[in-house]
């Protein structure tokens, strides 16, 4: 079954064609139009600018995805599209484009939850992966644990009560001079620094599976501001390493507790921050010690992309999920 999938929840416009069957999953095309250079001057995503950029890109990349896959719209069995969560203006662009395309060509339309789709990216590279499992989604906007009981049945367990891990990386990275988005540069710097050089609070909250990155971010920024006031130059490598150690340590602590609580035998790590080499290594070591399978998508599937929307869309389609022209977007 060929699925055309569209993603526009934040600052990546993506269209993909995936060939999905119960025992075979192939990515025929996965086109991503990045807005990084557009937003870099602002140090973060500007919602209004993101929405306009999606409008400019969505039609072209959809044609490109179909052409790259060697497919026509008549070959498409369903159109999957992100309708939540995300920036409302950005979501509306991809969703309304998908609605129009589906309606005009009489193709079933399947709404997809962006967070579930991140986890579903693992299905594309781990053919034997099946629920139940524990999913950990870590990105610029999300840091949360889900007990995945079935392909479409995700039960929220815990998550951050304020900022996400990716936001902490970006905000601290910006202050020490890393280009937006700061994740990749912070990853490299952390490999060169001393993770014990700076004492920072853990984002792991006591007595719960929840996390909080707001205090960690504030403590990091206060440390940097104090150095600036004293005229002392910051050691960027040590700052990145110490922040990374705090984030990875807190997340791994709660991942261990979540595995024990659920009894899950598989941990799926996904989302943009899943590309962080230190987090991958930390959770990989945790799973190895616990005798738990560890599944994490390759780097190209960690960020927002259409293929992951198609993967989750397939299972939503099988469960009977369909949408009409009254489908709306939800930011939450």
Topology summary:
Layout (H helix, E strand, L loop, with lengths): L1 E6 L4 E9 L4 E10 L1 H5 L6 H23 L8 E7 L3 H18 L3 E5 H7 L12 E6 L4 E6 L5 E6 L5 H11 L7 H8 L23 H17 L5 H27 L3 E5 L6 H14 L2 E3 L10 H13 L14
Parallel strand pairs: 1-4, 4-5, 6-9, 9-10
Antiparallel strand pairs: 1-2, 2-3, 6-7, 7-8
Helix pairs in contact: 2-3, 4-10, 5-7, 5-8, 6-8, 8-9
CATH domain topology of the largest domain: Nucleotidyltransferase, domain 5
DSSP helical segment count: 10
Mean pLDDT, nearest integer? 96
Q: Find the CATH superfamily of the largest domain.
A: ATPase, nucleotide binding domain
CATH A-level architecture of the largest domain: 2-Layer Sandwich
Reading the helices and strands in chain order gives EEEHHEHEHEEEHHHHEHEH
| Main sheet overview | 5 strands, mixed
**Which CATH C-level class of the largest domain is it?**
Alpha Beta
Alpha-beta content class? alpha/beta
If you had to describe this structure to a student in words, what would you say it looks like?
- The chain is α/β, with parallel strands linked by helices.
- It folds into two domains: 2-122 and 302-318, ATPase, nucleotide binding domain (Nucleotidyltransferase, domain 5, 2-Layer Sandwich), CATH 3.30.420.40; 131-296, 2-Layer Sandwich (Nucleotidyltransferase, domain 5).
- The protein is 43% helix and 19% strand.
- The chain has helices at 36-40, 47-69, 88-105, 114-120, 165-175, 183-190, 214-230, 236-262, 277-290, 306-318, and strands spanning 2-7, 12-20, 25-34, 78-84, 109-113, 133-138, 143-148, 154-159, 266-270, 293-295.
- The protein has a five-stranded mixed β-sheet, with helices on both faces.
- Strand 1 and strand 2 (12-20) form a beta hairpin.
- Helix 8 packs parallel to helix 9 (277-290).
- The longest helix has 27 residues, at 236-262.
- It is globular and about 65 Å long.
- The mean pLDDT is 96.
């Amino acid at each position: 079954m060929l699925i055309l999938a569209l993603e526009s929840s934040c600052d990546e416009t993506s269209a993909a064609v995936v060939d999905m069957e119960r025992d075979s999953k192939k990515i025929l095309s996965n086109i991503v139009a990045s807005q990084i250079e557009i937003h870099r001057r602002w140090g973060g995503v500007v919602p209004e600018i993101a929405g306009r950029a999606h409008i400019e890109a969505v039609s072209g990349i959809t044609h490109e995805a179909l052409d790259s896959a060697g497919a026509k719209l008549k070959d498409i069995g369903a159109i999957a599209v992100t309708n939540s969560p995300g920036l409302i203006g950005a979501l509306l662009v991809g969703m309304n484009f998908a609605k129009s395309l589906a309606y005009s060509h009489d193709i079933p339309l399947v709404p997809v939850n962006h967070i579930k789709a991140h986890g579903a990216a693992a299905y594309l590279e781990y053919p034997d992966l099946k629920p139940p499992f524990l999913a950990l989604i870590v990105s610029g906007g999300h840091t949360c644990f889900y007990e995945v009981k079935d392909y479409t049945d995700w039960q929220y367990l815990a998550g951050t009560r304020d900022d996400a891990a990716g936001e902490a990386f970006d905000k601290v990275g910006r202050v020490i001079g890393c280009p937006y988005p700061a994740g990749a540069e912070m990853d490299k710097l952390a490999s060169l620094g001393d993770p014990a050089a700076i004492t920072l609070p853990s984002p792991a909250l006591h007595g719960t599976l929840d996390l909080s990155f707001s205090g960690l971010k504030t403590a990091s920024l206060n440390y940097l501001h104090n150095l600036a006031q004293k005229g002392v130059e910051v050691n960027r490598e040590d700052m990145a390493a110490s922040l990374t150690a705090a984030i990875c340590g807190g997340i791994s602590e709660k991942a261990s507790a979540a595995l024990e609580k659920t009894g899950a035998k598989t941990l799926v790590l996904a989302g943009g921050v899943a590309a962080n080499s230190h987090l991958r290594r930390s959770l990989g070591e945790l799973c190895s010690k616990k005798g738990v399978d560890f599944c994490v998508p390759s780097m190209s599937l960690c960020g927002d992309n259409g293929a992951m929307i198609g993967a989750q869309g397939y299972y939503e389609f099988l469960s009977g999920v369909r949408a009409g022209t009254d489908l709306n977007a939800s930011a939450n």
